[in-house]
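Long-time lurker, first post. I've been practising inverse folding by hand and with some scripts of my own, and I keep getting stuck on stretches where the structure tokens seem ambiguous. Below is the full token string for one chain I'm working on. Before anyone asks, I'm not after the true native sequence, just a reasonable design that respects the backbone. If someone could post their per-position residues I'd love to compare against what I wrote down in my notebook.
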């Protein structure tokens, strides 16, 4: 099935906008940690109590955060994570990851050639969906009538595996989170928030029951779908699964612009945080999914996680005045 864009909409976000880290709540931190270490190759960069911060190279920036909450039950059918996608720097690195999955006997749920990318699908021990993928060069992305097309065809695994030579090196440096795909209750509401408020462009409308959003001309940073139906429960970050995900903005001026749009839309800031190297705020989408908006602080050093009062957060943006809003 082909997915095509029906819009040339430009994102109201900087081209350098990207997905930062994905934060999961897991019932068994030891089992989940072992999977992400031994099966996928993430490295531990920091730990604070029951929360582990993982990255491709064991240092900042983080790509995946796991918080253990023993005794949690499997989530109900609710809004939240469909899958998060790990972007590899080359086909060779994706091939090595695939070979390692086969060597350790981890189940693969699917493999697709999307035209713009090649993707492997699996799930972690708690059922969180994961995509491993590599992008094709942008000048090779297929189009029809000047619109991006993303087909779903079987991936030729033999050709990919032929590139996997030598022992598994672990996760390659430069590997990062490329996009996230969410389960929502209403596409129009999701579009109003992710495009109308946050500022992502709608890149693909033609896929049944789904929408895709991006900045910088990318195929998608965020996907949403209603394949579970329109009566899914609101997201509960205390349940196993997605706790939050980060939209990384290149500077505080860009973050301030998004905060202004949130204010005009009546979307309150749930919390704000000083991470030392960056400042961030967290909001909720129409289904209660937490979205963390983060921007780097010039000259920021080290790493911390210090809650900020709203006024202190707005001062930290060092931008044009932002109208006050009720907490």
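-- Answer (accepted) --
I ran through it position by position. Result:
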């Amino acid at each position: 099935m082909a997915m095509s864009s029906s819009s040339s909409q430009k994102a109201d976000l900087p081209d350098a906008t990207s997905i930062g880290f994905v934060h999961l709540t897991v019932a068994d931190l030891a089992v989940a940690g072992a999977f992400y270490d031994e099966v996928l190759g993430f490295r531990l960069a920091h730990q604070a109590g029951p929360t582990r911060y993982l990255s491709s190279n064991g240092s900042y920036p983080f790509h995946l955060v796991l918080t253990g909450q023993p005794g949690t039950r499997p989530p109900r059918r609710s809004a939240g994570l469909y899958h998060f996608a790990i972007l590899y720097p080359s086909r060779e690195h994706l091939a090595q990851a695939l070979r390692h999955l086969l060597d350790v006997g981890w189940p693969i749920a699917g493999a697709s050639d999307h035209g713009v990318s090649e993707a492997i699908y699996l799930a972690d021990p708690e059922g969180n969906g994961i995509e491993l993928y590599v992008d094709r060069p942008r000048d090779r992305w297929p189009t029809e009538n000047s619109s991006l097309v993303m087909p779903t065809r079987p991936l030729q695994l033999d050709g990919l595996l032929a590139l996997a030579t030598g022992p598994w090196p672990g996760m390659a440096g430069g590997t990062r989170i490329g996009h996230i795909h969410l389960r929502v209750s209403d596409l129009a509401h999701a579009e109003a928030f992710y495009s109308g408020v946050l500022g992502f462009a709608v890149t693909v409308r033609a896929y049944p029951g789904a929408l895709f959003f991006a900045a910088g001309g990318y195929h998608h940073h965020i996907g949403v779908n209603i394949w579970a139906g329109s009566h899914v429960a609101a997201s509960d970050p205390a349940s196993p699964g997605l706790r939050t995900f980060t939209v990384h903005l290149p500077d505080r001026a860009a973050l301030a612009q998004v905060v202004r749009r949130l204010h005009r839309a009546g979307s309150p800031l749930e919390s704000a945080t000083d991470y030392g190297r960056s400042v961030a705020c967290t909001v909720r989408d129409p289904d209660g999914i937490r979205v963390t908006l983060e921007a780097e602080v010039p000259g920021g050093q080290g790493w911390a996680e210090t809650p900020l009062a709203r006024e202190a957060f707005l001062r930290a943006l060092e931008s044009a005045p932002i109208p006050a809003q009720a907490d």
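A couple of notes from the structure itself: Residues 91-104 form the longest helix (14 residues). The domain at 241-317 is CATH 3.10.180.10 (2,3-Dihydroxybiphenyl 1,2-Dioxygenase; domain 1). Happy to go over any region you disagree with.
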